Amino acid sequence: MPSMKSAAMLLCLCLSSISLPAAADSRLGVPPSAQSQDYLASKGQFQLHTLLTEQRHPRTWDLSRVAAGDTTAALAQLLSVDEDVALALRQVADDPARLATLERASASVQAALRGGHRIYFYGTGSTGRLAETLESGLWRPFWQRAAASPAWPRIAAALPGAGERVRGEITGGDRALISSLEGFEDLPLIGELQLQDNAIGPQDVVFAVTEGGETSAVIGTALAAAAQPGAHAQRTWFVYNNPDAVLRPFERSRRVLDDTRIGKIALPTGPQAITGSTRMQATTTSLYVLGVVLEDAVAQVLGTTLPTDEMAALGFAPGTGIAERLRGFADIQRRVAAAAPRLASWTDLEARAYAGGHHATYLAQRALMPVFVDVTERAPTFRLAPLDPVDAPQRRSWIQVWAPLEDPQAAWQALLQRPFHGLDPQRYRAPFEQRIDDPYLRQAALRSLASAGAEQQALYDLAYSTRNRERSGPQRGDLGTLVLLGEPTLTPLQQQWLHDFDAAGAGLAVVAVGSGPLSPAVLQALSTLSRPVPLIAVQVPQRDAFGLDQAIALKMLLNAHSTAVMAKLGRVVGNTMTAVQPGNLKLIGRATYLIQSHVNGVLGTAAWQARHGATPALDYAEANAVLFEAIDRRAAMAEAERVPEVELAVVAILEGLAHGTALDWDGAARIVHRQGLNGYLAGYAD
User: Fold this and answer.
1) Which long-range contacts (CB under 8 A, 24 or more apart) does 600-608 make?
2) Which of the residues in the chain have pLDDT under 50?
């Protein structure tokens, strides 16, 4: 197998030789719209199909077919790709130069903590949720536990206000945790403005995290932080998951890579289990590495104040450095992968619930952040309705996430561990109006700004509240999943929730990640239910102060499960997410390339050529013109008739080429409804 570096360079050379025609060929009868012409002419920097993270992984190439027949095998495929993460982390641990980079990042965090400064993590989409996980799921809970330690007076004296020193921010503010806000990701300006909004100063440490290495908002954060007057060298870190050689053709990435003021933490692992779905291996890698860096920094600082036994009581294993922690990921991956047969029963239950028109509800306490992240990331990946607001006239989301609390405000506090932060329109509107030159981006950003304020918190109820029980309580055929993260017992509300689902005739499952077997108290609570409940328990030793190992194990379990559910429901074709919603420039490029790839895959088959003869391949410009037409056509359809734009376009193009007719959008939609894209493409399989 070629090395990742050589493979990336070869990929870059091959794809850079592809020319993009300026206009679509008339054979499809779809003249390029003004937006398509603009995208081809001036948005080449967002045509990202050359990225390594956008390629198809060979281990999951036929995932949709496998998932339809063997859930355990599909889960095993998905979880095996995390071996790439273990390999990448071991390579970092074994490379003195790359390991030294992480040690310097830890040293910069240590200096900030000792100097009373802050650490700021910023990302977009998946990496934005990563940033908030570092703050709300790892950092703040650690300091809450530390406050109960006998050593707390000395800890507080050495690091006053330590629990408030980390800030995790997602592009668009906390409302973007629910669903992405169109137009923001493509703006370097918003990264700069949110840096200012969070009062990040020149002595604070900034980690700008982007899976692709090209996200405009994250790049805006890195450049703005590096340019702050008085900023010390390498207090700004750029964290990314593609090789430099693949990123250099993109001017905005090159600006960061060439900026000596910015430290680079390159963490490429290769293609994702689902093509381009960087919520999986890319985010797992960055979350684990940054969690380890934070953990190491705190261990170094507290180690000068506390003796070994008190450090051990807080969860810090003596003599464990960054390299050992990175190598330890392989053990976590093996433990999670071994759970595939047990995981399959839960995956089948949830897929059946959705297929029958029913809903899923997740209840989590300590696991609230990883569960919430996985659930909300399903919407953009698989074209699902996002979580329902409280004023929704009817339920559109297939799923909901609740905390075992009765008060909605308390549920948000349990998730964030701090007050909700929205974007104040008074701070952002004028810069958007004055400093965004592109009319499409300016319009999208101003539209999204109206849905990014602090008032958005009240629109989403994450509690096991009376309102939620009355509006969307359990029904027969639904599925309830209780997720436990190292919890030795169940609260009264958790037990009530289980009995409410049991009494309603809904399905139940329990997923638990902890350091040992489930406690007798939990098993006793489960035994009081009317029927046995599938139990998926994974043991991950508690060897770290922040609980990072168990949190990352749960993340991998949830990612594989939710992806396999969607593959079983036809929301994945092969290992490509053809249901993708082209809501930003990057996703428009991804959708265009998916159309081109799937159409050309069929045109090259013996089955197509036997029926229709040799047909010239579809070029990128043709695919892009059809995509923008599909976006408009889909919007004009009745809601019940709509199908994802990529699937609509692929079928319309192939049917038009097969019959030599104009594209029949309504006919294509009927075919997708009747057969699904998997079924349609199977007719051309060699």
Assistant:
1) 601/681, 602/654, 602/681, 602/684, 603/657, 605/684, 605/685, 605/686, 606/686, 607/683, 607/684, 607/685, 607/686, 608/684
2) 1-25
User: Locate tokens 């629109």: which residue?
Assistant: 459
H or E element in which residue 262 lies: strand 262-266
- Candidates 236, 238, 184; CA nearest to 213 is 238
pTM of the full predicted structure? 0.93
SS3 531: coil
φ, ψ (nearest 5 deg) of residue 250: -95, 120
**What is the reported pLDDT for 669?**
96
Hunting for tokens 């003195």 — which residue is that? 96
Q: What is the pLDDT of residue 98?
A: 98
- Residue 424, phi then psi, degrees to nearest 5: -80, 115
d(CA 133, CA 131): 5
- In the structure encoding, which two tokens stand for residue 463, read together? 């509690």
Residue 41, beta-bridge partner list: none
Kindly write down the DSSP assignment for every residue of 28-71, as one continuous string: G--PPPHHHHHHHHH-GGG--TTSGGGSBPGGGTTHHHHHHH-H
- Rounded distance, CA 479 to CA 508, Å? 6
Cβ partners under 8 Å of residue 127, min gap 6: 209, 210, 211, 215, 218, 283, 286
Residue range 598-656, pLDDT digits in tens: 999 999 999 999 999 999 999 999 999 999 999 999 999 998 899 999 999 999 999 99
How remote is the C-alpha of 676 from its chain's centroid? 25
Using DSSP, state whether 437 is helix, strand or coil: coil
Query: Of 554, 548, 82, nearest to 325 (Cα)?
Result: 548
Torsion of CA 355, 587, 362, 512, to 10 degrees: 110
Task: Specify the 3-state DSSP secondary structure of 513.
Answer: strand
Tokens standing for residue 644: 């994802």
Positive or negative, the Cα torsion across 461, 462, 466, 468? positive
What is the CB neighbour count within 10 angstroms for residue 335?
Answer: 17
- Give the residue from 136, 73, 180, 210 showing the smallest Cα distance to 560: 73
Q: Which pLDDT score, from 0 to 100, does residue 26 have?
A: 67
Token pair recorded at residue 78: 């998905």
d(Cα 570, Cα 564) in Å, to the nearest integer? 10
Q: How many Å from the N-terminal Cα to the C-terminal Cα in the chain? A: 27
